[in-house]
Every structure is written in structure tokens, then in C-alpha cells.
Design brief:
Blueprint: E1 2-13, E2 18-19, E3 23-24, E4 28-51, E5 65-66, E6 72-74, E7 78-86, E8 92-114
Antiparallel strand pairs: 1-8, 2-8, 3-8, 4-5, 4-6, 4-7, 4-8
């Protein structure tokens, strides 16, 4: 079994919009992404984004689709959110943050289990 727990964002500046590093889901049976933040007057929205671009190297993905039902509004100075997915059938995943107001720092980790 393949297990990986990795940082996909460290201390992202929440004064502007953010995107985490993408993660390949090849041979993955499930994943969880945990996002944490702290700051002042923070409002915005977290998005879960996926891609089926068939490419070598996640850094060159151009087609990302937001899973609208997974959007998470943020309206607190500190908090966290987790997305948990079983048997994903897309090739890549990342999260993004659309800032509305406030300043702070955001970090994220992904835990993968697969074969």
C-alpha cells in the first residue's frame, strides 16, 4: 500500500487568491486534504479543483475544474477544513482560495492512500 502525507501549501498569503501545489492521484484509492488558516478579518472561499489533463508533470496543467459542491466559505480569523475523497476518478487534485477581505496565512496538507 502506498501512503503519503505531504505539504501542498505553507504560509500562503491570504491577502490575495492562492492555489496549492497539484497532486497526482495515479493509483490512489482515497485522499484527504486539510487546510488551516489564521489572521485578521478573513473572508473568502476555499475551492476543491480537479483535472484530467493527460500530461507529464503537474506543474503544466491548464484545465482545472472546480467541484462547486465542495466550496467552503471562510468567515473566521482562524480555522480549518478537510475534504475527504474515496475512490477519486480524476488524475490531479489541488485546492484554491479566493480572497474577499482580510490578511493571514494559509497552509495545507494532503494524505494519500493507494496501491
Amino acid at each position: 500500500m502506498r501512503i503519503l502525507n505531504d505539504s501542498i501549501m505553507t504560509n500562503g498569503d491570504m491577502a490575495g487568491s492562492l492555489q496549492s501545489l497539484p497532486t497526482s492521484l495515479a493509483h490512489i484509492g482515497g485522499y484527504a486534504i486539510q487546510v488551516t488558516w489564521s489572521g485578521t478579518g478573513i473572508t473568502g472561499v476555499l475551492h476543491l479543483q480537479v483535472s484530467d489533463d493527460l500530461i507529464q508533470g503537474a506543474e503544466t496543467i491548464t484545465n482545472w475544474t472546480t467541484i462547486d459542491t465542495a466550496d467552503q466559505p471562510i468567515g473566521t480569523d482562524a480555522g480549518s477544513h478537510v475534504w475527504n475523497a474515496l475512490a477519486p476518478h480524476y488524475l490531479y487534485v489541488r485546492f484554491s482560495y479566493t480572497a474577499t477581505a482580510g490578511t493571514g496565512l494559509m497552509s495545507g496538507r494532503i494524505n494519500l492512500k493507494g496501491f
